[in-house]
Amino acid sequence: MERHTVSVTSRSDWGAADPRSKKEMSEPAKRVIIHHTAIRSSDTPQDCITQVGHIQKMHMEDRHFDDIGYNFLVGQNGIMYEGRGWGVMGAHSKGHNEDSVGIAFMGNFNNDIPTSEALSAVRRLLRHGISQGYLCSNYAIFGHRDLASTECPGNNLYPEIQCLRSNRD
């Protein structure tokens, strides 16, 4: 049986830089967009923390985002990391950020297989978002490739989105 609690490693716990600015969402998210980071998988907490920090740095320095683009990231070990968090507009899917939450699985899921731990953590996060009013109960869930010309979230993760759609209880 899957636990019904969600534990998210806070920005301060992974050493996030302060965002240059942030835009609060005016209402609960209506969509969830699933991504992969397209870099090697992270299994240990320290490796995940290092990777989240590198992703934030790349997003802010190379892509000139105000912060890390994703709202949340999840490692293969099922540990969840706060990116921009709930209620803050992300920068993860151009033209689709205003009403969505972006969740990135850490790894390249054209090569890797998502773990049950990571998938369960995302299901718990989504249930938590609904219960706290951050996510509409009738949200739609997409792979990044459904909204843009990209392979993201990878061929091995994309089919799992259907399972996330059907496991909303």
Task: Outline the secondary-structure elements.
Layout lengths: L7 E2 L1 H4 L14 E8 L8 H18 L9 E3 L5 E3 L17 E6 L10 H16 L3 E9 L16 H7 L3
Parallel strand pairs: 1-4, 2-5, 2-6, 3-5
Antiparallel strand pairs: 3-4
Could you tell me the number of beta strands?
6
The multimeric state of the shown protein is single chain
Largest sheet: 6 strands, mixed
Number of continuous helical runs? 4
- How big a fraction of the residues is strand? 15-25%
Helix content: 25-40%
Gross morphology is: globular
Query: Distance N terminus to C terminus?
Result: 13 Å
Q: Widest sheet: strand order? A: 1-4-3-5-2-6
Q: Provide the succession of SSEs.
A: EHEHEEEHEH
Structural class: alpha/beta
Rounded mean pLDDT is: 92
Unreliable stretches covering 5 or more consecutive residues: none
CA-atom Rg in angstroms: 14 Å
General description of the model:
It contains four helices and six strands; from the N terminus they run E-H-E-H-E-E-E-H-E-H. It has 169 residues and is an alpha/beta fold. A six-stranded mixed beta sheet has the order 1-4-3-5-2-6, with helices on both faces. A hairpin with a 5-residue loop joins strand 3 (72-74) and strand 4.
